[in-house]
Write a structure and sequence with these properties.
The protein has 186 residues and is α/β, with parallel strands linked by helices. It has helices at residues 17-30, 42-49, 93-99, 117-125, 140-157, 161-169, and strands at 7-12, 33-38, 60-64, 67-68, 71-72, 106-109, 130-134, 178-182. It has one domain: Rossmann fold (3-Layer(aba) Sandwich), CATH 3.40.50.
């Protein structure tokens, strides 16, 4: 096996499995090593955000989730299923500040409104080098193609994430809702 081009964590939220499978297959075909994390409960997401469950060589994280009003839509569990202290409800900036530790990572919030400035700032405040996401509600096919094209440019053409972002964003007018936020520390 040849050395992977990049190491990617693909984090699949509720009802996003088809998108995650398409992303994983494409990225692996391009030469990336992809580790998929299936989120069934809030503590699963916390384990990834905290870095506790991430492989040490992970460079980029794709958060394949549904979003609304700048929050990640989390699974709703029965009251008796939640673990002691496990948060209930969706994850917004407050939860990212509380749980995330993503020093130097590049993170893609690929779901509706996950490019909200307050959410992006929370990720940057918790160590992300770059955060990218849409600040509105993209069509699912557009969201998939944005990620695929961005990674195609990074892997196949050795573009920087910023250059690949510009190319992917230019594929259609709808993709102008994708925003890039960069840490001042980078």
């Amino acid at each position: 096996m040849s050395k992977p081009a990049i190491h990617v964590a693909l984090v699949c939220g509720p009802n996003c499995d088809m998108e995650a499978q398409a992303i994983r297959a494409t990225l692996e075909y391009l030469g990336a090593r992809v580790i998929t994390y299936w989120i069934g409960r809030p503590n699963d997401f916390i384990s990834v955000l905290s870095g506790e469950d991430l492989y040490p060589d992970t460079e980029m994280i794709i958060l394949s989730f549904h979003g609304d009003e700048g929050k990640f839509i989390m699974p709703e569990l029965g009251e008796d299923v939640y673990e002691h202290g496990e948060p209930k409800g969706d994850f917004g900036p407050d939860e990212i500040i509380r749980y995330a530790q993503l020093d130097g990572k590049i993170v893609f919030g690929n779901g509706c409104t996950l490019g909200d400035p307050a959410l992006a700032k929370a990720f940057l405040d918790r160590g992300c080098q770059i955060y990218i996401g849409p600040d509105d509600y993209p069509d699912g096919n557009e969201a998939l193609m944005f990620i695929v094209r961005l990674f195609y440019e990074v892997i196949q053409h050795n573009k920087s994430v910023s250059e690949a972002y510009q190319i992917a964003r230019s594929m259609s007018d709808e993709l102008s809702m994708y925003q890039i936020y960069q840490s001042l520390r980078s």
